[in-house]
Amino acid sequence: MEIEVRKNVLGKNDRLAAGLRQIFADKGIFVINLISSPGAGKTTLLEATCTRLKDELRLAVIEGDITTTRDADRIARHGVPVYQIETHGACHLDAKMLEEALSRFNLDELDLLIIENVGNLVCPATFDLGEDAKIVVLSIPEGDDKPAKYPGIFQRAKVCLLNKIDLLEVSGFNKESALGDLREINPEVIVFETSATRGDGMDVWCNWLKEQVAAKQR
Amino acid sequence: MHELSIALSLLDLITEECQKHGVERLKKIKVVAGELAGVVPEALKFSFEVVSEGTVAEGAELEVEVRPLQAVCQDCGAEFIIENMKFRCPQCRSRDLKRSAGDELFIDYLETAD
Q: Shortest CB distance from B110 goes to which of A3, A94, A155?
């Protein structure tokens, strides 16, 4: 006997994510899901973002890591509310983990929630967290072939941060080729060139975040 | 290795369906995965074999059909398969496209063993 099912395998995650998206809409919280390979500079970028925005916006950060609270400790030093999800081996965050983490925050007092996903360009792309935007960070030392090699995440991203741009000259990274591939995969993606350590592009990136928060709360 | 999480979700859904239909043993499970769903069929099959041990799906064949990415051109209306991740309309070269398939991941059907 054949039983027709036609049901989404990740339906449970997607339903939870839809519920979270509704909560974020009701509370006027703009939510980003930050995704990159390990070592692309997500946490340093977040620290630089927190420094610039913490006096203007009510921020919170959720850190996803397989183990250790190192990243969360770094964010906490900036006086920004942070909660660490240790995934104990799992390579991505899912909506259930996020839902549990949200109970640690007062959602009535938030404008911007930044979720730093587990460092991985593959798995986090599949799991919706109810975010407004997936932000992919591509750092110069990783090489210009990453968009072509990991199209799934680059296709779904609203913004691509080309980070560690201060290393462009010494790296042999072909920016034209990387951006060409990126535009083929995702014609609508917004690109910001940033260096979290030197400060390049950080104001443009933070202004974009402020605009998105304002638009969501309008 | 998110295939393991996917295999667990898959097993939950299968168990639910089998209970609903009073099925005790499965012969085959057919899953459809869009190219963009990021599922490696072999990895999913291996994970599923592990998690389905001792369940209604133990020993059942898992077939994973990978479906290509498709888009509809917002300028000329053409619907086409996107090859090599090049988001460009083959007819009018427009880049204003809407994805119509390719990120789905669903159970198509179950085949019972009796």
A: A3
| Domains of chain A (ranges, CATH numbers) | 11-213 (3.40.50.300)
Cα–Cα distance for residue pair A148/A152, rounded to 1 Å: 9
Tell me, yes or no, if the pTM score tops 0.90: yes
pLDDT of residue B1: 64
Which residue of A lies nearest to B113 if distances are taken between CA atoms?
A1
A66 part of contact set with chain B, CB < 8 Å: no
Q: Do A12 and B97 touch (CB under 8 A)?
A: no
Q: How far is CA B94 from CA A12, A184, B71, B97, in A?
A: 36, 11, 12, 7
Using an 8 Å CB-CB cutoff, list chain A residues near B26: none
Q: Does A96 touch chain B (CB under 8 A)?
A: no
Strands A82-86 and A2-8: unpaired
The ipTM, to two decimals, is 0.88
Fold classification of B3-68+102-112 (topology level): hypothetical protein PF0899 fold (3.30.2320)
Q: CB–CB of B5 and A94 under 8 A?
A: yes
> Which are the contacts of B29, defined by CB distance < 8 A and separation ≥ 6?
B10, B14, B57, B60, B61, B62, B63, B107, B110, B111
Q: Where are the domains of chain B?
A: 3-68+102-112
